[in-house]
Every structure is written in structure tokens, then in C-alpha cells.
UniProtKB/TrEMBL annotation:
InterPro entries attached to this UniProt entry: ATPase_P-typ_cyto_dom_N (IPR023299), ATPase_P-typ_P_site (IPR018303), ATPase_P-typ_TM_dom_sf (IPR023298), ATPase_P-typ_transduc_dom_A_sf (IPR008250), ATPase_P-type_domA (IPR059000), HAD-like_sf (IPR036412), HAD_sf (IPR023214), P-type_ATPase_IV (IPR006539)
Sorted UniProt keywords: ATP-binding, Cell membrane, Cell projection, Endoplasmic reticulum, Golgi apparatus, Magnesium, Membrane, Metal-binding, Nucleotide-binding, Translocase, Transmembrane, Transmembrane helix
Molecular-function GO term, any one: phospholipid transporter activity
Top-level taxonomy: Eukaryota, Metazoa, Chordata, Craniata, Vertebrata
Positions annotated to bind ATP: D454, K455, T456, E555, F596, K619, R652, T732, G733, D734, R866, K872, N895, D896
Transmembrane segments: 139-161, 339-362, 389-408, 949-970, 982-1002, 1032-1051, 1071-1089, 1096-1123, 1143-1161
Limits of the P-type ATPase C-terminal domain: 918-1172
Named cofactor requirement(s): Mg(2+)
Organism: Pipra filicauda
Record's protein name: Phospholipid-transporting ATPase
One annotated Gene Ontology cellular component of this protein: apical plasma membrane
Span list, region Disordered: 1-62
């Protein structure tokens, strides 16, 4: 047993997770695509015979067939799937995107069906049917129909407005155009009309409409540069390259129209980084991989045009597969409200049953003996009791408030507009306003416990800037004058002397500029020369401007810095590079480029300089550079100290060094280098080994420091949210070092934070799991929870874990594909053993996941790096599952969509990375810093308003309805109403609705500034303190007491009373008016007591509702309306007669005073003796507003020896352009114009070289 357990959870050294590698992407496709054979390079042609041979084994994996320019090909029965009974549909999706729910035909039936799925609406429909039965109806049918139609109508209009917006957005995307081959010519076609197999043409700066196979482009060797910001949030360009055969033969329009290739590939899936397929064309086959596929959502950059064949369209594209399922989101208050409505219905049934029993007893004792009560119906007392049960269900129906849901919708709708209109959440730079894209989740914003944030483009601007450097032990980059003296007021360096300077580059160290211009320091020359020459950036000139294309934004920042400081990279060929060194143009021979990868963490170039000497220039992470330095490096310690200073300022550091190489040494090494380059197997490993031989005994030049610019206000926002007891987890696809460095930059991590990594976490969880197994004994079902914390002491802790470790720890790692063995369990015992083993494995997995969540939640901050979109969603789901916490996910790219849809609240940032995240989000705005206002102000206010609204709403309905019950004891439990029918109809619609709606929309306990200044106020919502079952039953009790007072004080006053003119006002109708009037005064004054923030509108609504009640009542009790509708208006003259009696007004004043004075006393005592946090702040608000100061960042104490925290230089998440440069495939010949390509053959020109 123990060995079996060990095999389930222990790690082999070979399978140890790699922190640098993004774990394999996720999908319902279970197995990874088989890797290509070492000998088969992409684009390499094989014979048809071999192709057919290799086609059989992969047929199962490559079952998706796409034929170019042949739409009839997809009509074959083999490509159809059954959707319902005998109805079949093509398995190939069309390219139209549909996010709307209704069309003109389905709107009414579907919307009504959805609305009647709500328990309350269905309940009132049943009630309406019951009211149409004369034997049991005690109320007119219109008392239910009018409110029900009002509720259904308001909700339908809101749903219609939302769906029209979705239609517009879909149409905007679906009606974009591109050129598609039709009838042998390119014709402009809408995206929605594109189909699989179509050959399309895309132009520069246009989005890609589907997943397409790149066939050719205007660039050399049919390269195509794409920006993948929509997919992964990265704005640096990536290149794709067509097959050599399609590049050569598919440039002309006629050739593209005649193209009839067949692609066999994997089924649609969500693996952004993988693609496996084969192109069969002209009796040859060509292997395809992800480098030849352009994905939907990417944008064509720096490429005039390209041609491609659609492989996946619409819902089958990888970006749509990655978007996850759209979940129906509802708030905690929604769920609680539904349960409370169910509780009220149960109470209603029990009360009706009790009153029906009372009526049965009354009939037996009194009714049958009273001849004057005979109604000509010979029903038995039990049957009369049964009819009265339904009668009371109708009379007491207002206990279930029909207008509750529509009132909630109106409040949410208004709150959403307040978010949209908030100018303090408007981002002027991008002209982006905050947008509430849903109207159903506002109060949930006031209950968030966990925030899951993306990094790139969400916390950071995804803009790298060169800030500081250390050259030969001397630090540069501080604000200094030409003499090297520090300046109190930073003055920007004027780069007008440099014709190539980038105007966006800002630098403040005038002393460094003077040193460069003087030329006295050779190390400074070498330093910036290295930055200008050691890279894989490619240069392009457009409109007289020099532009760079970099494999990573860091590399672009360094080359731009060198450019501004006088060392300008101008152009390159396959084996030369041209620079401008302080105005002098020089060309150098590049002998070799030793490219970056995540294991090497460095890159080098070997250059032959003007004098013929050979020199290696290298840059990389300090951890790998320091291991390869020559023993005699006098500036080693000074540079290390500078690295500590830079790291303490949360800058990304990088070391620069060089080495002179003799001709003989280079010749020997170059021979090995060529052999490794031509290796057919393990080429990368062979090259890395050869690189190691030459990258040694390096001379240290210095270090650079780059700032990965945070968005404005990120540290302040995180600090405020932390004070509100909200835990923030960062989930990113970026590298561990980069993510950790950003953690320090945004003050999620501090110097005092103890960081726990993947291996530490795995060990802790392994120990806990073993202890739990031992405690559980032999029973596999026992999962005894260990309650003691994982960490002892109160030390500030953070968890940093990579995607690979996450899969390992959560037992999510995919097992390698095994060969099929036809071995099945033959006996029942074997089947039971297998089932037991599966159950045990599942139980262990669940326990491990629960332990991980417990451990992570003990940490103040959690950073998950190198995680896939599905892992992001999985982490959110685990916290929701095991902590029952309210979660919010915020991101800006398509890789965040799954996480945004999984969390209770999804927030999209509209900025650098396109609109995919925004379109899937519930709320959107332009900057991360607006999140604090969304939660601490709008969220908190929305929660308080909604809770106050619901407590009051239940109170006013109980106070209104329970009067009928007290009246029943005096009318033989006959289900007679205590009020006039029209009062019952209009009570919730007109007489008591407006004041509470305005409180739900406008009320605020403290101002927005004080809400931000005191984030602890937010904790009320997290703990559900303002609305829960306790508050609900208190509202019920308060309503019941009010109803007793409303009924019994007028009842007592009417006994043996006489009016001043001798008329007795003790009749039923006068009593009904008195009770109703008292109720209107009480409930409207009660909402006045509940209002914290008074405006003219609130005051007008309270007194206006009372005035409206009296106005309508006098109208309905007039003789004129009785003449017109005698059966509908029977209280003729009651109000004018009753309300002119001072005795009744005194009765009403007494009722109001007894209802409200205890509430006033309780509020006064509570605020004086037990004030809440908001009461204290409100009391001192003027003092706080005078003291209002801008929050300042806490300065962190400088410490030495923090090299473990230095961020490794993030060259790129993939190899750079070194292979591309060395092969000469990227070297641009004179470009043929687009018209020439479509018409005549392109002219040929000489290669442009600078010598």
C-alpha cells in the first residue's frame, strides 16, 4: 500500500517540473501531438509514397481535412454530424460569431420562458389563475395582473436593450471585410461569409479573421510578422513563415485560385502553442507546425500583404476555444433572496393552512348556527375551509413581493449607469470610460475576498524603459549635471545632437552624456557598442524613420537606449551589421550569433572588428554571467553592489561582458559550431554544448537596469485593497523572475516577505498528505482534516509557484500516451479493485488540492507564473470550491478570458492588448488603479444600498400584509381583506416604491473619499453582515410588530367611539382608510429614518408618496368614478368623510409615534453607545476631509546582498531571430508593390547591403 501511495505522489528527478517552461496547453484532446521526426524539417518535401506510409498511423490524430478552394468538398456525408434526430449539420463551423440570445421571432417566447423560471414570477402566474376562479377569489384579478405585467415589461425591456447591444457588437465583428478567392478572383467578403478552405488575402494592420495556413507574403521567404496581443498579451512582434514550396509557387492570383492542396491536421482545440498537420499537394507531402499558422485575433504587422488558407473558422478557432464556457453569474444576495422567497412561501402556506383550519372551526361553531350568514351554498365546513385556504393564499400573496425583483433590477440598472458616468474612472489618454457590461452583479462588487490579476498589461504597461546602468563599477542614470553633481530638480537630456534619437526616450544623467562625448572612457564605448551589436533586433525604415522589430520588449529598450546615446544600429545582412558610432558609420562582420534560450539565459555575438581582431560580446542574467567570468575581474564587487541597488529599486538587471578570441581558437570552435548546426538529432543540445566552450573567461563591462513600467497607481491600489482584507493573487504566463520582480515593484512583496517556492510547497503538502493518510487509517474514504496551519508564527509570507509545479502539486499532470493493450478486467473482483483504485486516487487528488488552497490562503500574496489560460481558471475555481469565497478576476488579453468567465466577477482592461478580455468581462475600464474605486466606492455603496433596500422591502411588505391576519380573528377567518382592493394593488407600485428605490440608488453612509481613505469599511460586505437570515427575521419581526400597532390602535380607538357630528366612523371602510393611512405614514417615515444621505429628491419622494396616496385615495373615493365604474370603486365618500374627523388623525398620530419612537431611541443608543466604524467616520467627517492627504508610497529600507531577487533578463519567451538572420531569409530585397504581385510578375532587384 505504501509503495502504491509513494508512486502516486513522489517526484522523480527526471520529471522534476521546469520553472521556465509553460506547461502543455489544455483541451479535451487528451494526448499531445507526436513530435516530428528529427530529420523532417518543416517545409521539407517527401515523396508521395512515404507520405502515404506516414499517413496511416496519424490518421486518428489528424482527422480534420481541409481542401483549398472547394466548398463542395465539405458536403460529403463523412463531414456531417447529427444534431437532432435525423437532422444533420456540417462539423465545420462557419465564421460568424454569435453572442446574442434572441432574434425577433424568439424574443417574446424565450424571454417569457426565462422570466417564468424565476420562482416569484411563476408563483404570481399561478396566483393570477387562482384569482380567476370565483369560488376562491377574494381579490380582484387586476390586483395581481397590473404589477405582474409591470414587472415582466420592465425586465423584458432591459433584456432587449442588452441583447441589441450584443447584436451590434457581433455585427461589428462579423461585417469586417477581407479579400477571398471566388470565381478565380479576389473579391471583398465579409468575415461571416468566410468558410473553411477559402484562400484569403490580408493587408498590413488588419486582424486575422480565422485560423489560417500561411501560403505566401510580400516579405522575403514569405515571412509574416504578427502581433499576438489578443492571445497572450505580448505586444512584441513574432514571425511566421510559409512553406518554401507555397512561397515559390503561390504568389500570383491565378496560382492561388488554382491551388487545390489538402490539409490533414488535428481536430480544433485550444492549444495556442501547438499545431500538427500535413499538406498534401501535387503528389508530395509537407509537414506543418504552429510556425506556419496565423491565429484569429492576431494582427498583421510590418507585412504589406499575405495569403492564407482557412483551416479553422468561427467557434473552432483557437481563440474561441480558449474563451471557456459562458457561465450564468448570480450574486450571493440573489441566491439568499431566492431562499428567503422560498421561506416566505412556506410561511405563507402554513399561515393560510392555520387560518383555513380556523375558518373550518368557526363555521362549525358559529357559521352554521347563524341564519343571517347563509349564502345559498350548502358546502360543508371542511370544504369551506379548503376554499378559504386558497382565498388566504391570494389575500396574503403580498408577503411574496412581486415588485421585489423589478425593483432590484431598476436599482442595479441605475448603479451600472453611475459606474459608467464616473469621471474619476475615465482614462483620458485612451478615451476609455468605465463600463458596467452587466447590470446583475453590482452589489457583489462589495463582497470580494480574492482578486486574481494578470500581470502583463494589467499591472504593467508592457513598456520597457532603460533607466540606469553600471559601467566599469561606476553607476549612471541618476539626475546629475555635466559635472556629475546630483540635481534637486531633474532636467531632461537634450538629444538634438543625435539625428537618430527617439523622441520618446527620457534620460536625466547629463554626466553620462558628457563622458560618452569625451571618448575618454574606452569601457563606456565598449558598453554601448555591445548594446548596439549584441542582439537579434531587425531594423526597418519607413517614412524616413528608423523602426526596430524586437523579439522581446526588453531587447528593444536596450537597443533604443544605445541608439539615443550615440550608438545606433542601422541595418544588418546575413553576416554583417552596420552601426552609427557617434555619427561615424561602420560595418562589422558577424561571424556567429549564439542565441538566447530559457536554459542559457544569455546571448552572444562573435564579431570581426575593423583591425581584424575577433571579439565575443555577451549579455545575460547575472547568475549565469558571474559563473563564466575570468578570475581577475577587478570591478566584479562594485558591479555586484550596483546590481543590488538596481534590484532594490525593482529594476530588471542584466550583465554585459566581452572576450577577445584568437583566430586559431575561433577556427577550431567554428568547425564544431558548423557540425552542431547541421546535426539532425538533438541539435539544440549540441549547440548549447558548443556555446559553452567559447563563453568563458569573460571580462565584465557592467550592468543595465530596465524598468518594466507599472501602470500609474498600482502599488497604492494594491495597498488599499490589502487593507480592505482582499487577498491578491497574480496569475501570469510570464517568467518566474519577471513576475517576482513585478511583485516587489507593486509592493505585493516586500523585503520582509518570506517567499515559498514550488519545491517548498510540494514538500509541505507531501508531509501534510502523509500525516492525513496516517491519521485516516486504512479507510480510503476518510479525509481527516488537519487544522493546524502550515506556517508557524506571524511572519509575512508569499507563495510563488510555476505552472509546471502547479500541475505536479495538484496532480493534474498528463500521463504519457501508452500503447494500447487489450487487457480488460475479467472478474467482478478485478472491476471492484479498479474502481476502488480510481476512487482512492480521486480522493487523494481532492485532498491535495484542498491542502494547496489552505496553504496558499495562509500567504499574504500568491504569484503563479508560466501558467496556461486553463490553469488560471482552475486556480480561481479551486478557491471558489474550497473557500466558498467571492472572487474577482482582472485581465486584458485573450489568455485571461477563461479566468474572467470563471470568477464571480470578471473585469477587463481595455488598453494595449485589444478587446477580447473586455468583451467577455462584466466590467471594464482603462487602468488597474480604477479597481479600488470600483470595489471600495461603487461596490461598497451598491452592497449597502441593496441590503438596506431588501431589509426595508421585506419590512414594509410584512407590515402591510400581516394586518390581514389580525383582521381574520374578527371576521371569522373568512379571507376578507383589511384594505380596499385598489390600495392593495397600488401599495407596492406607487405608494411605497419611490423612496426605497431612491435609497437603493443614492444612499451612502460615507463619501467616496472617506470610503477610499478607510478601506476597512469594506469588510462588512465580505462577512455578509448587512443582509443575512438574522437580518431577514428581524425585518419580519419588525414588520409583524408594526402591523399589530397599525391594526389594534385604530381597532381600539373605533370601539364605542362617536364622531363630533354624531356620525359613527366605526364602519369597516373607515377603519380600512385609517389603517392604510397610518401604514403609509409609518413606512415612508421609516425609510426617512433609514436614509443616511439626504437630498432634495429623497425628501420629495417621501412626502410626495404620502401626497400621492391621499390624492389617488380621494379620487378613487369620489362619486364621479363610482358612477363610471360602480363594481370597481365601492368606497364612495369614505376618505372625505373619515379624514375630516380630528379623532382619526389623533389615532393615526398615536399609531405612527408608537411605531417610530422605539426605532429612533434604538438608533440613538446604538450610535452613542455601540457606534459602527462608519458612524465614527461620519461623526468626524469634516476633520478627516480637512486632513485628506495623498497616499504616499512607503520607502523600503535599502539592503545589500539581494541578488536572489534580481530579475533575469526576459529576452523573450521563445528563441530570438538569430536563426532567421543567420539563414538570410529575413534580408529584404526590393519590395514589389501589391499591384505588381496581383498582375505582372514582380521585378527583381539587387539585395540592399551596406558595406
Amino acid at each position: 500500500m505504501s509503495s502504491e501511495r509513494d508512486s502516486e505522489t513522489t517526484l522523480d528527478e527526471d520529471s522534476r517540473p521546469n520553472d521556465e517552461v509553460m506547461p502543455y496547453s489544455d483541451d479535451e484532446t487528451e494526448d499531445e501531438p507526436e513530435p516530428r521526426q528529427p530529420g523532417a524539417e518543416p517545409g521539407q518535401s517527401q515523396s508521395h509514397g512515404r507520405a502515404e506510409e506516414s499517413r496511416e498511423p496519424g490518421k486518428k490524430d489528424c482527422s480534420w481535412q481541409v481542401k483549398a478552394n472547394d466548398r463542395r468538398f465539405y458536403d460529403q456525408p463523412a463531414f456531417k454530424r447529427t444534431i437532432f434526430l435525423c437532422f444533420k449539420k456540417s462539423k465545420y463551423a462557419d465564421n460568424a460569431i454569435k453572442t446574442y440570445k434572441y432574434n425577433p421571432i424568439t424574443f417574446l417566447p424565450l424571454n417569457l420562458f426565462e422570466q417564468f423560471k424565476r420562482a416569484a414570477n411563476f408563483y404570481f402566474l399561478v396566483l393570477l389563475i387562482l384569482q380567476s376562479i370565483p369560488q376562491i377569489s377574494t381579490l380582484a384579478w387586476y390586483t395581481t395582473l397590473v404589477p405582474l405585467l409591470f414587472v415582466l415589461g420592465i425586465t423584458a425591456v432591459k433584456d432587449l436593450v442588452d441583447d441589441i447591444a450584443r447584436h451590434r457588437m457581433d455585427n461589428e465583428v462579423n461585417n469586417r471585410t477581407c479579400d477571398v478567392i471566388k470565381d478565380g478572383r479576389f473579391k471583398t467578403t465579409k468575415w461571416k461569409d468566410i468558410q473553411v478552405g477559402d484562400v484569403i488575402r490580408l493587408k498590413k494592420n488588419t486582424f486575422i479573421p480565422a485560423d489560417i495556413l500561411l501560403l505566401s507574403s510580400s516579405e522575403p521567404n514569405s515571412l509574416c510578422y504578427v502581433e499576438t496581443a489578443e492571445l497572450d498579451g505580448e505586444t512584441n512582434l513574432k514571425f511566421k513563415m510559409a512553406l518554401e514550396v507555397t512561397h515559390r509557387q503561390l504568389q500570383e492570383e491565378s496560382a492561388l485560385a488554382d491551388f487545390d492542396g489538402l490539409v490533414e491536421c488535428e481536430e480544433p482545440n485550444n492549444r495556442l502553442d501547438k499545431f500538427t498537420g500535413t499538406l498534401f499537394w501535387r503528389n508530395s507531402s509537407y509537414s506543418l507546425d504552429a510556425d506556419k499558422i496565423l491565429l484569429r485575433g492576431c494582427k498583421i504587422r510590418n507585412t504589406d500583404f499575405c495569403h492564407g488558407m482557412v483551416v479553422f473558422a468561427g467557434a473552432d478557432t483557437k481563440i474561441m476555444r480558449n474563451s471557456g464556457k459562458t457561465r450564468f453569474k448570480r450574486t450571493k444576495i440573489d441566491s439568499l433572496m431566492n431562499y428567503m422567497v422560498y421561506t416566505i412561501i412556506v410561511v405563507l402556506i402554513l399561515l393560510s393552512a392555520g387560518l383555513a383550519i380556523g375558518h373550518t372551526y368557526w363555521e362549525q361553531q358559529v357559521g352554521n348556527c347563524s341564519w343571517y350568514l347563509y349564502d345559498a351554498e350548502d358546502f360543508s365546513p371542511p370544504y369551506r375551509g379548503f376554499l378559504n385556504f386558497w382565498g388566504y393564499i391570494i389575500v396574503l400573496n403580498t408577503m411574496v413581493p412581486i415588485s421585489l425583483y423589478v425593483s432590484v433590477e431598476v436599482i442595479r440598472f441605475g448603479q451600472s449607469y453611475f459606474i459608467n458616468w464616473d469621471l474619476q474612472m475615465y482614462y483620458a489618454e485612451k478615451d476609455t470610460a468605465a463600463k458596467a457590461r452587466t447590470t446583475t452583479l453590482n452589489e457583489q462588487l462589495g463582497q470580494i475576498q480574492y482578486i486574481f490579476s494578470d500581470k502583463t498589461g494589467t499591472l504593467t504597461q508592457n513598456i520597457m524603459t532603460f533607466k540606469k546602468c553600471c559601467i566599469n563599477g561606476q553607476r549612471y542614470g541618476d539626475s546629475r549635471d555635466r559635472a556629475g553633481q546630483l540635481q534637486s530638480h531633474p532636467e531632461q537630456v537634450d538629444f538634438s545632437w543625435n539625428v537618430y534619437a527617439d523622441g520618446k526616450f527620457l534620460f536625466y544623467d547629463h554626466y553620462l552624456i558628457e563622458q560618452i562625448k569625451s571618448g575618454k572612457e574606452p569601457e563606456i564605448h565598449k558598453f554601448f557598442f555591445l548594446l548596439a551589436i549584441c542582439h537579434t533586433v531587425m531594423a526597418d525604415t519607413s517614412d524616413g524613420q528608423l523602426n526596430y522589430q524586437a523579439a522581446s520588449p526588453d531587447e528593444g529598450a536596450l537597443v533604443t537606449a544605445a541608439r539615443n546615446l550615440g550608438y545606433v544600429f542601422l541595418s544588418r545582412t546575413q553576416n554583417t551589421i552596420t552601426l552609427s558610432e557617434m555619427g561615424a558609420h561602420r560595418t562589422y562582420e558577424v561571424l556567429a550569433i549564439l542565441d538566447f534560450n530559457s536554459d542559457r539565459k544569455r546571448m552572444s555575438v562573435i564579431v570581426r572588428e575593423a583591425g581584424g581582431n575577433i571579439r565575443l560580446y555577451c549579455k545575460g542574467a547575472d547568475t549565469v554571467i558571474y559563473e563564466r567570468l575570468h578570475p581577475s575581474n577587478p570591478k566584479r564587487e562594485a558591479t555586484e553592489e550596483a546590481l543590488d541597488v538596481f534590484a532594490n529599486e525593482t529594476l530588471r538587471t542584466l550583465c554585459l561582458c566581452y572576450r577577445d578570441i584568437s583566430q586559431d581558437e575561433f577556427d577550431v570552435w567554428n568547425k564544431k559550431f558548423v557540425e552542431a548546426s547541421l546535426a539532425t538529432s538533438n541539435r539544440d543540445e549540441a549547440l548549447d554544448k558548443v556555446y559553452e566552450e567559447i563563453e568563458k573567461d569573460l571580462i565584465l563591462l557592467g550592468a543595465t537596469a530596465i524598468e518594466d513600467k507599472l501602470q500609474d497607481g498600482v502599488p497604492e491600489t494594491i495597498s488599499r485593497l490589502s487593507k480592505a482584507d482582499i487577498k491578491i493573487w497574480v496569475l501570469t504566463g510570464d517568467k518566474k523572475e519577471t513576475a517576482e520582480n513585478i511583485g516587489f515593484s507593486c509592493e505585493l512583496l516586500t523585503e520582509e516577505t518570506a517567499i515559498c517556492y514550488g519545491e517548498d510547497t510540494s514538500a509541505l503538502l507531501q508531509t501534510r498528505l502523509e500525516n492525513q493518510r496516517n491519521s485516516a487509517g486504512s479507510s480510503p474514504h476518510s479525509s481527516l482534516r488537519m487544522n493546524e496551519p502550515f506556517f508557524q508564527g506571524s511572519k509575512d509570507r508569499a507563495l510563488i509557484i510555476t505552472g509546471s509545479w502547479l500541475n505536479e502539486i495538484l496532480l493534474e499532470k498528463k500521463k504519457k500516451k501508452k500503447k494500447l493493450k487489450l487487457k480488460f478486467p475479467r472478474t467482478a473482483e478485478e472491476k471492484e479493485k479498479q474502481a476502488e483504485k480510481r476512487r482512492r486516487a480521486e480522493a487523494y487528488k481532492e485532498q491535495q488540492q484542498k491542502n494547496f488552497v489552505d496553504l496558499a490562503c495562509e500567504c499574504r500574496a500568491v504569484i503563479c507564473c508560466r501558467v496556461t489560460p486553463k490553469q488560471k481558471a482552475m486556480v480561481v475555481e479551486l478557491v471558489q470550491k474550497y473557500k466558498k469565497a467571492v472572487t474577482l478576476a482582472i485581465g486584458d488579453g485573450a489568455n485571461d478570458v477563461n479566468m474572467i468567465k470563471t470568477a464571480h466577477i470578471g473585469v477587463g482592461i481595455s488598453g494595449q492588448e485589444g478587446m477580447q478580455a473586455v468583451m467577455s468581462s462584466d466590467y471594464s475600464f482603462g487602468q488597474f488603479r480604477y479597481l479600488q474605486r470600483l470595489l471600495l466606492v461603487h461596490g461598497r455603496w451598491s452592497y449597502i444600498r441593496m441590503c438596506k433596500f431588501l431589509r426595508y422591502f421585506f419590512y414594509k411588505n410584512f407590515a402591510f400584509t400581516l394586518v390581514h391576519i389580525w383582521y381574520s380573528f374578527f371576521n371569522g377567518f373568512s379571507a376578507q381583506t383589511a384594505y380596499e382592493d385598489w390600495f392593495i394593488t397600488l401599495y407596492n407600485v406607487l405608494y411605497s416604491s419611490l423612496p426605497v428605490l431612491l435609497v437603493g440608488l443614492l444612499d451612502q453612509d460615507v463619501s467616496d473619499k472617506l470610503s477610499l481613505r478607510f478601506p476597512r469599511l469594506y469588510i462588512l460586505g465580505q462577512r455578509d453582515l448587512l443582509f443575512n437570515y438574522k437580518k431577514f427575521f428581524l425585518s419580519l419581526l419588525h414588520g409583524a410588530v408594526t402591523s399589530l400597532i397599525i391594526f389594534f390602535i385604530p381597532y381600539g380607538a373605533y370601539m364605542k367611539s362617536m364622531g363630533q357630528d354624531g356620525e359613527a366612523p366605526a364602519d369597516y371602510q373607515s377603519f380600512a382608510v385609517t389603517a392604510a393611512s397610518s401604514l403609509i405614514f409609518v413606512v415612508n417615515f421609516q425609510i426617512g429614518l433609514d436614509t443616511s444621505y439626504w437630498t432634495f429628491v429623497n425628501a420629495f419622494s417621501v412626502f410626495g408618496s404620502i401626497a400621492l396616496y391621499f390624492g389617488i385615495t380621494f379620487d378613487f373615493h369620489s362619486a364621479g368614478i363610482h358612477v363610471l365604474f360602480p363594481s370597481g370603486f365601492q368606497f364612495t365618500g369614505t376618505a372625505p368623510n373619515a379624514l375630516r374627523q380630528p379623532y382619526l388623525w389623533l389615532t393615526m398620530i398615536l399609531s405612527i409615534a408608537i411605531c417610530l419612537l422605539p426605532v429612533v431611541a434604538q438608533r440613538f443608543l446604538a450610535m452613542t453607545i455601540w457606534p459602527s466604524e462608519s458612524d465614527k467616520i461620519q461623526r468626524n467627517r469634516r476633520k478627516y476631509l480637512l486632513e485628506e492627504q495623498q497616499w504616499r508610497r512607503r520607502p523600503s529600507a535599502f539592503r545589500r546582498g539581494l541578488s536572489a531577487r534580481r530579475s533575469a533578463y526576459a529576452f523573450s519567451h521563445q528563441r530570438g531571430y538569430a536563426d532567421l538572420i543567420a539563414s538570410g531569409r529575413s534580408i529584404r530585397k526590393r519590395r514589389a508593390p501589391l499591384d505588381a504581385v496581383l498582375g505582372t510578375a514582380p521585378g527583381t532587384g539587387d539585395a540592399r547591403q551596406t558595406s
